[in-house]
Amino acid sequence: xxxxxxxxxxxxxxxxxxxxxxxxxxxxxxxxxxxxxxxxxxxxxxxxxxxxxxxxxxxxxxxxxxxxxxxxxxxxxxxxxxxxxxxxxxxxxxxxxxxxxxxxxxxxxxxxxxxxxxxxxxxxxxxxxxxxxxxxxxxxxxxxxxxxxxxxxxxxxxxxxxxxxxxxxxxxxxxxxxxxxxxxxxxxxxxxxxxxxxxxxxxxxxxxxxxxxxxx
Length: 216
Hints:
Layout: H1 2-47, H2 50-72, H3 76-108, H4 114-135, H5 143-172, H6 176-206, H7 212-215
Helix pairs in contact: 1-2, 1-4, 2-3, 2-5, 2-6, 3-5, 3-6, 4-5, 5-6
């Protein structure tokens, strides 16, 4: 009986340690995303780049997403699934916002600065690869962390798109590559929102609410 008790206690401690590891990684990734949002958004304004600004808005959304993930970590499966639902809704809203910005750029835009796009896009790519590496071992931990990993993976794809757009703008002198990549980022966000929501909704339905006493 004593051995069984120790075994159960060891398993509990292992789960708590895993949660602590998740929380530490989420805090670091959240800070990186909020810092890079400020840098990318400012760079997008100076460069007049739809793709760079769309990428920065995506990173702001991710900063909020990670904050939601931190809030849900110790609150049970239903809270984690509910938070994933909120993240899916946020990603969908960001996709719509990017689409509106691109429409305005088509009507009123001018070619962006390719050198600024390369500089800020490259810095964002390095930051997001670091975030992805930190989240990698937790990617299948639960629906909450899985949706967070999805956000970070989307960021890397968006950063690569910004760099490709910068190269095409430099080669052609036209603004269409920037608009095109901004549209692709919007589509990636829409796809991600669908995947997160489709995974989170059944998880939320299946999860049992946790009483307040258990959370204390």
